[in-house]
Automatic annotation (TrEMBL):
It comes from the Bacteria. InterPro entries: Porin_10 (IPR025631). Pfam families: Porin_10. This is Porin.
């Protein structure tokens, strides 16, 4: 709460100042509604130049830059497009391949998968609780002309709201800061289903006047707290039958009223470099050759905790009550790099990486047979790596490689891509990924007060191997088409163990980690295209998937489609830009993964086929200057298309609800 108050009052102060001193700063929004901001360019060092006084009138929206972890640079986008409608949600990204649960921020089932890894080290686990957890790669940095505030507000379900506020400013052109807080609370329609989360971040990036020294850093403090009701208890009678008495969802019986799980993490990240050698082409100070020494440091503490006041036979026999399962992970990462850049040869970096981990519980467990399940996995991993990047005319080449020299967790990771830009409207790209590493820590070691949720698989589990090849073609005329082939070896998953004795009434007592010995082949085809006729448009995204496997351990819908028919136009003498329409989302039936609240994980099940129902949303959006207003009637067909809309077995999707909000940018 203290982070929220700091950010709120900070944003309010700058907002009021911007309104009171409107004559001081005028930002030209030079981007029309038809302009695309999907183009990305690599961040370039600021050239050394004599300070000059820019005219305030020359400031445009393009002077407010957003720099990704990969140093791709985009500009603040204040337009209102259908893509903004798709991204206006709890995650603030397109959730086409996700199926949300009933409450806002609860979790998401997967309608599509991407197995490419950003790092070569395992994670804590509890993947179902990490959709809103910002990793290092998710933190953006900013370079702005004047202070800028970005505020997102959206209503949730029953008591609560979603507010994401960010303020970015600079003390000079070369030193920029940002501070932000995303706070969320939603009581939900069903009992014992409250979700709360908070994401506090602060960033800085700096470049010295001579361009030799660069630095960027961030601090992130995040928590996600969820009440876990275990799903519906009498779904056929109280939900699927559509009884008017139970359409008042608090009357529907749920399995638990005393269970919670929590993810909490804190991270400190620093990345800086110094150019030992720098040669310029001429007096323009455009860099021709350089040699840089760089260092990256990251330290993170995180835990996942499951709490339950009194145990339940649903998960099997109990050891002690109350249940207080807590898995802790502390990691420290250091990278030392040497980078050579030449205008002709490209950019080549060599690096040495040291990763230290400490995954632990606060007890030691002994099975009935006397087998000891340890309390800790810790060690140090040492790896070498190299990165390469070069642009030759329309060709763009990129490559990254890491190879483990010592340690038990990681193996290697390789990413290579080649793209060709025919012109601003047509681009082709091929990407290759290969990686090998151990599964997440909760597959290897876990302890719980539930007897069957204790295991240690460090000796029996092998490294998962992922190999994928993707080709994509983006064209304004034809659309965007991508095809991806992925091969998985030693795929790790959670499922019921038929060899364990099941306690009476325990439907999920045997959920444990497994590893598939045989290979799995997965093909994903995705096509996006918008058709326009005057002020009307039809935006379409279609995804086809097929999986080849001996055992049904990777289950996905064969077809997923989203189609939006909408109207857009300037109204009130162009004082407002209006957008309104209907979106249909549909995915074919499949054996959808179940959800386990003890582990915070999804598991493979083969008893229920779910899906095959339409989701219809009606929306009205408007843009007034730099403010975008959103109004949506979500799932308005819920009462007449049948009560079979599930996000996972026993966990329904949400009923019809009207929600509204806005995104507002201030400049000062």
């Amino acid at each position: 709460m203290k982070y929220f108050l700091i950010v709120f009052f900070g944003c309010l102060t700058f907002s009021l100042r911007a309104q009171q001193e409107d004559s001081t700063v005028k930002v030209k929004d030079s981007i029309s509604q038809t302009d695309s901001l999907s183009k990305k360019k690599k961040e370039k060092p600021l050239p050394k130049e004599k300070p000059k006084r820019d005219s305030i009138n020359e400031i445009t929206i393009k002077n407010y830059k957003i720099i990704s972890f990969a140093r791709d640079t985009t500009f603040l986008d204040t337009t209102l497009t259908i893509q903004k409608e798709y991204k206006y949600n709890y995650l603030r990204r397109d959730d086409f391949e996700l199926m949300p649960f009933s409450n806002i921020g609860q979790t998401y089932n997967s309608l599509g998968m991407d197995f490419d890894r950003a790092t070569m080290y395992p994670n804590l686990g509890a993947k179902a609780k990490h959709f809103n957890y910002w990793e290092v790669e998710d933190i953006p940095y900013y370079n702005v002309a004047t202070p800028m505030t970005d505020i997102l507000f959206k209503t949730t379900l029953e008591q609560g709201q979603l507010l994401d506020a960010m303020l970015t400013f600079n003390t000079s052109r070369r030193l920029n800061f940002s501070i932000g807080y995303k706070g969320h609370r939603s009581l939900g329609k069903y009992n014992s289903n409250q979700i709360r989360s908070g994401n506090f971040t602060t960033t800085t990036n700096y470049q010295s006047r001579n361009g030799r020294y660069t630095l960027r850093a961030h601090i992130a403090a995040q928590d996600i707290k969820s009440q876990e009701n275990g799903g519906l208890l009498e779904k056929e009678l109280q939900f699927e039958a559509g009884d008017p008495e139970f359409r008042d969802r608090p009357k529907v019986d749920v399995r638990f009223d005393d269970a919670d799980n929590v993810v909490l993490g804190k991270r400190y990240y620093l990345e800086h470099a110094y150019k030992l050698i720098r040669r310029n082409r001429d007096s323009s100070y455009v860099e021709k050759t350089s040699l840089s020494l760089g260092h990256t440091f990251g330290y993170e503490t995180k835990y996942y905790q499951f709490l339950q006041t009194s145990g339940d036979a649903y998960f099997g026999d109990l050891i002690l009550t109350p249940v207080n399962d807590k898995a802790n992970l502390k990691t420290a990462y250091n990278q030392l790099s040497l980078e050579f850049y030449n205008r002709t040869l490209g950019r080549l970096q060599g690096n040495v990486n040291i990763f230290h981990y400490n995954y632990f519980f606060n007890s030691v467990f002994f099975t009935e047979g006397g087998q000891e399940i340890g309390s800790r996995l810790n060690g140090t991993e040492l790896a070498l790596g190299a990165d390469y990047e070069k642009t030759i005319g329309g060709f763009e080449l990129e490559g990254a490689f890491r190879y483990n020299l010592s340690g038990e967790l990681s193996g290697n990771i390789l990413d290579a891509s080649a793209g060709y830009r025919f012109n601003d409207r047509n681009r082709f790209k091929v990407h290759l990924h290969s990686s090998s590493r151990m599964p997440d820590f909760n597959f290897l070691l876990y302890q719980s007060e539930y007897l069957n949720y204790n295991w240690q698989n460090t000796a029996s589990f092998k490294k998962e191997r992922v190999n994928s090849l993707e080709a994509s073609f983006d064209s304004e005329l034809i659309g965007s088409l991508s095809a991806k082939y992925t091969n998985l070896d030693n795929y790790a998953y959670f499922a019921a163990d038929p060899l364990l004795e099941v306690t009476e009434g325990a439907e999920q007592a045997t959920i444990r980690p497994f590893q598939e010995d045989t290979g799995i082949s997965y093909i994903k085809l995705k096509y996006t295209k918008e058709f326009r006729l005057g002020k009307f448009a039809l935006n379409n995204t279609v995804m086809y998937q097929t999986v080849s496997q001996e055992s049904n351990v990777l289950n996905l819908p064969q077809l997923v489609t989203r189609n939006s028919l909408y109207f857009s136009s300037d109204v009130f003498k162009k004082a407002m830009y209006l957008q309104t329409g209907i979106t249909l989302k549909y995915f074919s039936k499949y054996t959808m993964n179940g959800y386990n609240p003890v582990l915070g994980e999804f598991f493979v099940q083969d008893t229920e086929e779910l899906g095959g129902f339409p989701l219809l949303d009606f929306f009205i959006n408007a843009r007034i200057q730099q403010t975008r207003i959103f109004l949506k009637a979500e799932h308005f067909n819920s009462s007449f298309s049948g009560y079979n809309f599930y996000a996972a077995p026993n966990y329904p999707y949400r009923d019809f609800v009207i929600r509204f909000g806005l995104v507002w940018n201030f400049f000062s």
